[in-house]
Amino acid sequence: MAWMKALRLYGARDLRLEEVERPERTKDEVLLEVKASGISMSDVKSVYEMGAPEGNVPQILGHEFAGRIVEAEDVALVGRAAAAYPMLFCGRCMACLDGRPRDCGEMQLYGAGRAGGMAEFVAVKKQNLVFLPPDVSFRAAALTGAAAVALHAFRKTGVGPGSTLVVFGLGSIGLALASWAREADVRNVVLVARTMEKAAFARSLGFLQSVDIEGSDVYNYVMRLTGGRGADACIEGLGEGGALETALLSVKRGGRVVVMGRPEKSLEMTGLMYDLLLQKEVELHGAWKSSLNTRPAEWLDAMNAMRSHAVDAEALVTHTFPFEKYEEAFALLHDKQEMYCKVLFVNGEEAHG
Questions:
Q1: Domains held by the chain: number
Q2: What pTM was computed for the model?
Q3: What gap in Å lies between CA 63 and CA 69, rounded to an integer?
């Protein structure tokens, strides 16, 4: 019997690092030795507020991970480096049959229902593997999902060369969005952060039109930049009413606003917001998740972009921890006592493919 370390959630504020049996894989799965595993804000919410999903206690967390295959039916796969697409679809429901697997009614998720990647090993369906090119690190590959979600939202904006795009929210997804915009030759990429420190971090990555929402008049900044026309599109990634209102103010008449931030509390549409949406004839779009194999194949596009460094995912990693320091890692995201972008658990002395 083989053992491994895993972070298992028993309830709100009850996360434990335990020695557990290494997972048994089925014939259509591989056993992945995890090298890098990201902590998302949904993980933080689960640990501090929600606890484990009903019927899955204890739950091994983690849906953003990459590693090396150590067991597989096809021996040619052993030794290959891969990231794991986190969603599992039934393939039978109307959404799946209509080519919309992201809307599958029986979807399962690694890290929420299925054992996730905050462990030394995880069993992964072969169909969920995205193989790493030799020059993409495990650290970068753990952000494939963030880059793919960003690409899905960016494509909703319809912007291109010469356009102005405003992005609210500068986590790893927001900064990946900025990278996609830069790759598409968007003329002005205005990034709006919650804090001065995060705006400064974005500028250090070359995104010079980065401001903080508290210390800046975002609307007037955008108006000056565009000669009073407004932005061609805005992406609201904070999940806040104030940011959505500013997006509706800042976008041009007939422009697009894409919403992708999940509100932490109820979000009210004010009369002003409704009037702006109505009178400016703004197109309002939602953006949710990302696709693996269905067209467009955003995960494959994201991996290729990381290989070419169009998206420099590793530059977004500000903190790494071993599993043993899980309390410190989660407290960093929850307490927000210092600036961070992407926080990873790394397994082993290095995390490169």
A1: 2
A2: 0.95
A3: 17
Residue among 221, 279, 283, 209 at smallest CA distance from 246: 221
pLDDT tens digits, residue range 277-295? 999 999 999 999 998 877 7
Q: Is residue 74 part of a domain?
A: yes
End position of a domain, from candidates 286, 307, 334: 286
Q: What backbone torsions phi and psi does residue 235 show, to the nearest 5 degrees?
A: -120, 120
Query: Distance between CA atoms of 334 and 3, rounded to whole angstroms?
Result: 30
List alpha helices for the chain, DSSP H: 41-45, 94-97, 138-141, 144-157, 172-183, 196-204, 218-225, 241-250, 271-279, 298-308, 326-335
What DSSP state is assigned to residue 253? Answer: E
Q: Count other Cβ atoms within 10 Å, centred on residue 61.
A: 29
Residue 310 lies in a domain: no
- CATH number for 243: 3.40.50.720
Question: Which residue in the block uniquely carries the two structure tokens 């509390």?
Answer: 265
Contact 332, 343 (CB under 8 A): yes
Q: Looking at this protein, which amino acid is placed at residue 247?
A: A
- Tell me, what CATH number does 35's domain have? 3.90.180.10
Residues 77 and 158 in one domain: no
How many Å apart are CA 16 and CA 7, to the nearest integer?
Answer: 6
